[in-house]
């Protein structure tokens, strides 16, 4: 008799309803009592806004080895080779899962029996980007998974904000979550908690992320004493429409032939990188930012050579958004600018989604597997969620069958504390400034600070200014039940902003998406992850998470 047969169904609480959370629920199946908690509706997540597609080595002439090589190059020396191998080798099987769950990927000439109509995106050496509904891949994937979950036995709690993790004081194990629903706090007990809560795009005023991406899961994990890694590494997508809302214009548009032009009509990317418009995202984003700084205006994405009919067929969502904002991109260039898009950092995990907190798993953008390194390769994000959610579910199942509870990871190898007088001192400023904390910032104030000092371009002076300001800010939330969700979100963003800026200050180099104008080159001494650990709060039924507490930075060798 297995552990699963001998006891009542183990309880698993999954925080988040994007592809990572939904796949985890589906892979766990009916042997577990699964509850999905989402602060909006089940279909509102970053997943549904993913336009480009899913990268996988499934086309003739492509190979897993080629996908691995492209991912490692994009990662700028920080990608974990073992994680990358898992991602690329297991990707094709996870694509078959999606097809089984009802995702209808686009085929050549619209023929269901034909090969995939795979696209090409920046830094990929093959056409390997599978898409559905043209540029509506995320939407199609999300709805297929939502239908599958609704047909399964999982319980779904919508409009439910996860306030904090519940940690057993004796064992240090995650035993549930505290949830705010309709102004009432309640505790959901669990044998395993899985964070699938997405990134922190709402730290910035210009982001392609939906309004729900306020870093709630990562902030809760940080308060619980979990290790976070690569917090400073935020990818800025080069081409968001330069209009309110920063509507994403997929990299696949450039893959199909669109080019970037400056105010003089010149293709400035030709001199910036051998791959021109298809260079890695960090390079394209910085080149656009430099042009904007020089001219004071957005650059233009010129897709006219693709043709009106093909633009409408291949990119119907973008075409509609362009028209909505008064542009006809079949006849004219449309203004684009960088926007915060994807967080390579997150809650540090092993290859099975385990975190440093026993009983706590993390999958998707909230996690940091090391697979993306310093710069995510285009269309690897949905694949990461598929692959590592499946692995996490397998690990949870194996633990349950063995009758094991609350297993943590084996630890990060080759870790070293950055000592006093070095980057480790980045944690000292929050401790000193906490005594003088007096100002509760608006979301707009936080946005302006982060965009100015911790955006596409960074330097030590600006980061120090930001850190001093952030540590003088606070969002009191003693009574969580009496606090608005928006205010709780701002407190989470503020907490993550502090550790992001401290980590960016500690990384004295430029690597991938992290660019320091005062340290413009990559430095071999920083070819490792930076991790941050915060001392857990004292046990208190109130909600003390807004208080800045001691944290330490560690350099973790790849």
What does this structure look like?
The chain has 558 residues and is an alpha/beta fold. Among the domains are: 239-338, Flavocytochrome C3, Chain A, domain 1 (Alpha-Beta Complex), CATH 3.90.700; 412-557, Methane Monooxygenase Hydroxylase, Chain G, domain 1 (Up-down Bundle). 32% of the residues lie in helices and 17% in strands. The strands form five sheets. It has a six-stranded mixed β-sheet with strand order 17-15-10-19-20-18. It has a five-stranded parallel β-sheet with strand order 5-2-1-9-16, with helices on one face. Strands 11-14-13-12 form a four-stranded antiparallel β-sheet, covered by helices on one side. A hairpin with a 6-residue loop joins strand 6 and strand 7 (174-181). It is globular. It starts with a helix and ends with a strand.
Show the helix and strand layout:
Blueprint: H1 3-6, E1 11-15, H2 19-28, E2 33-37, E3 54-55, H3 64-74, H4 81-100, E4 129-130, H5 137-151, E5 155-157, E6 161-167, E7 174-181, E8 184-189, E9 192-195, H6 216-223, E10 228-229, E11 234-241, H7 251-255, E12 259-261, H8 281-295, E13 299-302, H9 308-314, H10 316-324, E14 334-343, E15 346-348, E16 360-362, E17 367-368, H11 381-401, E18 415-417, H12 428-434, H13 443-453, H14 460-470, H15 485-506, E19 528-534, E20 551-557
Parallel strand pairs: 1-2, 1-9, 2-5, 9-16, 15-17
Antiparallel strand pairs: 3-4, 6-7, 7-8, 10-15, 10-19, 11-14, 12-13, 13-14, 18-20, 19-20
């Amino acid at each position: 008799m297995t552990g699963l047969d001998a006891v009542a169904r183990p309880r698993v609480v999954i925080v988040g309803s994007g592809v990572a959370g939904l796949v985890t629920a589906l892979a766990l199946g009916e042997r577990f009592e699964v509850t999905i908690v989402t602060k909006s509706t089940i279909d509102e997540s970053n997943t549904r806004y993913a336009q480009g597609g899913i990268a996988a080595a499934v086309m003739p002439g492509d190979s897993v080895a080629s996908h691995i090589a492209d991912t490692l190059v994009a990662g700028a020396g920080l990608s974990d080779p073992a994680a990358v191998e898992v991602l690329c080798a297991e990707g094709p099987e996870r694509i078959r899962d999606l097809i089984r769950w009802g995702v209808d990927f686009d085929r050549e000439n619209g023929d269901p029996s034909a090969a995939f109509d795979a696209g090409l995106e920046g830094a990929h050496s093959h056409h390997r980007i599978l898409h559905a509904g043209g540029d509506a891949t995320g939407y199609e994937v999300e709805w297929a998974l939502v239908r599958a979950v609704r047909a399964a036995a999982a319980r779904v709690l919508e409009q439910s904000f996860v306030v904090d993790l519940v940690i057993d004081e004796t064992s240090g194990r995650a035993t549930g979550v505290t949830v705010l629903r309709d102004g009432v706090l309640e505790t959901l007990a669990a044998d395993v908690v899985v964070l699938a809560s997405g990134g922190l795009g709402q730290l910035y005023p210009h982001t392609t992320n939906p309004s729900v991406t306020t870093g709630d899961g990562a902030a809760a994990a940080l308060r619980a004493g979990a290790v976070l890694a690569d917090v400073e590494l935020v990818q800025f997508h080069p081409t968001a429409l330069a209009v309110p809302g920063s509507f994403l214009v997929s990299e696949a548009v450039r893959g199909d032939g669109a080019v970037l032009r400056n105010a003089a009509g010149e293709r400035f990317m030709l001199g910036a990188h051998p791959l021109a418009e298809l260079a890695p995202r960090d390079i394209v984003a910085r080149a656009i930012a430099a042009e904007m700084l020089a001219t004071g205006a957005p650059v233009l994405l010129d897709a006219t050579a693709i043709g009106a009919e093909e633009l409408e067929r291949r990119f119907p969502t973008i075409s509609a958004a362009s028209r909505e904002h008064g542009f006809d991109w079949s006849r004219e260039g449309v203004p684009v600018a960088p926007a915060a898009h994807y967080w390579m950092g997150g809650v540090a995990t092993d290859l099975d989604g385990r975190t440093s907190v026993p009983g706590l798993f993390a999958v998707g953008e909230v996690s940091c597997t090391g697979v993306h390194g310093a710069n995510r390769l285009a269309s690897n994000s949905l694949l990461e969620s598929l692959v590592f959610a499946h692995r996490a579910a397998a690990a949870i199942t194996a633990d349950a069958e063995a009758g094991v509870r609350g297993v943590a990871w084996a630890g990060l190898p080759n870790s070293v504390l950055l000592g006093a007088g070095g980057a480790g001192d980045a944690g000292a400023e929050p401790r000193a400034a906490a005594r003088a904390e007096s100002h509760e910032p608006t979301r707009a104030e936080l946005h302006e600070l982060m965009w100015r000092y911790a955006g596409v371009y960074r330097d030590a002076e600006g980061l120090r200014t930001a850190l001093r300001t952030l540590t003088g800010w606070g969002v009191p939330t003693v009574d969580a039940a009496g606090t608005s969700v928006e205010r709780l979100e701002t407190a989470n963003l503020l907490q993550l902003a502090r550790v992001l800026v401290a980590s960016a200050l500690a990384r004295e180099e430029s690597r991938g998406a992290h660019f320091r104008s005062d340290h413009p080159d990559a430095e071999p001494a920083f070819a490792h992850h930076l991790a941050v650990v915060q001392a857990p709060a004292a046990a208190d039924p109130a909600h003390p998470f807004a208080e800045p507490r001691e944290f330490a930075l560690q350099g973790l060798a790849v």
